[in-house]
Amino acid sequence: MQAQSIKLDSRQLLLKTYRVYRLSHSFRSCLLICAVFTLSAGAAEKSAPPVHELSPTDAIVLGLVEGVTEFLPISSTGHLIIANQFLGLESERQLTDRAGKPLWHEPPSKDQPNGVPLTLKLAADTYTVVIQLGAIAAVITLYWRQFLSMLLGLLGRSSSGFRLLRNVLLAFFPVAIIGLLLHDLVAKYLFSPITVIGALIGGAWLMLWAEKWRRANSGTGFSKGEAADLTTRKSLGIGFAQCLALCPGMSRSMVTIVAGYLAGLNPAKSAEFSFLVGLPTLAGAAFLKSLKSGPAMIQVFGWSNLLLGALVAAISALIAVKFLVHFISRHGLAVFAYYRLALAVALLVLYLL
């Protein structure tokens, strides 16, 4: 009996050691990816000094907020509104160069006589989208086996990998198409504190309902499936649910996890599928934002601040993803719902003041 206990303790110790090794390996991978970005862009800072000094503390705060909140079901938008307000990055006054000449995001033209001034708010909004690349790097390092499986599926060497790739793409296409069609309308009419507050409250109610539904149906065996086994209809359903996250404050992670519940996935599998589905969405948003406003953002903040924010986002996202899978499999979504309600109250107070 004592020998069995010692053997069991040894196995538990080996398992814990392996988990620590995997986590440290993921940290090293994130650092390596960010180092590549740093080496490729390090010289650019010298040739174009930034217009506005974003302190290292500001870059760390924004990277931390982005990395932690991007994959947790608590709305990265709501937290970034608070962070930008706290750091004084909400100014819409036109920036000038060192000689006092006005800077333009889009200079005046025949089609746009007034042009689009380059402002601190525009640069900060772009910054928080582009540093999502760090969060993307974190998920890739954690779930590299799934990505390898999908690659093998694309090459016809893994049937489960092909099904997983199919389901990820099916869940991505609706938000990609609808997001492109509605992007300007969303930016014009929905990006406001009141919208975010309403979405936080509505999302909290949805999470509490979904958690109650999941617990009521936990004995039916519905939650034993894998993401690769989802039908095309269920994958598309998750994709259309993700479109709700176009409303600022709703949280892309939250709606895809809830939709995963309804599709028959358990909490951990729902969260992991949410991470995979989120990558093309986040990468697409970062790519489009970089093309449209990236050079202006670099002109304002410089390369070093961008790379620091991306590095912090990568490390914090890695920790947040590991935490969410562990926590949600044991406690569900209810705690995050209550947190969203508290955040909504904080935003309302900030808005009224």
Mind explaining what this structure looks like?
The chain is mainly α and 353 residues long. The chain has one domain (2-100, 113-352). It is 75% helix and 1% strand. The chain has helices spanning 2-41, 44-47, 56-71, 76-87, 120-130, 132-142, 144-154, 159-189, 193-216, 232-242, 252-263, 267-301, 303-331, 334-352, and strands spanning 104-106, 116-117. A two-stranded antiparallel ribbon has the order 1-2. The model is unreliable at 2-10 and 31-47 (pLDDT under 50).
Layout of helices and strands:
Layout: H1 2-41, H2 44-47, H3 56-71, H4 76-87, E1 104-106, E2 116-117, H5 120-130, H6 132-142, H7 144-154, H8 159-189, H9 193-216, H10 232-242, H11 252-263, H12 267-301, H13 303-331, H14 334-352
Antiparallel strand pairs: 1-2
Helix pairs in contact: 1-6, 1-13, 3-4, 3-13, 5-12, 6-12, 6-13, 7-8, 8-10, 8-12, 9-11, 9-14, 10-11, 11-12, 12-13
CA distance, first residue to last residue = 66 Å
Q: What is the total tally of β strands? A: 2
User: What order do the helices and strands follow?
Assistant: HHHHEEHHHHHHHHHH
Report on the biggest sheet: 2 strands, antiparallel
Q: Which shape, going by the Cα principal axes? A: globular
Give the helix proportion (percent range).
over 70%
Write down the domain tally.
1
Order of neighbouring strands in the sheet with most strands: 1-2
What is the rounded Rg? 22 Å
Low-confidence stretches: 2-10, 31-47
Average pLDDT level: 85
Please state roughly what percent of the residues sit in beta strands, choosing from under 5%, 5-15%, 15-25%, 25-35%, 35-45% or over 45%.
under 5%
- Oligomer state equals single chain
Structural class: mainly alpha
- Count of helical stretches: 14
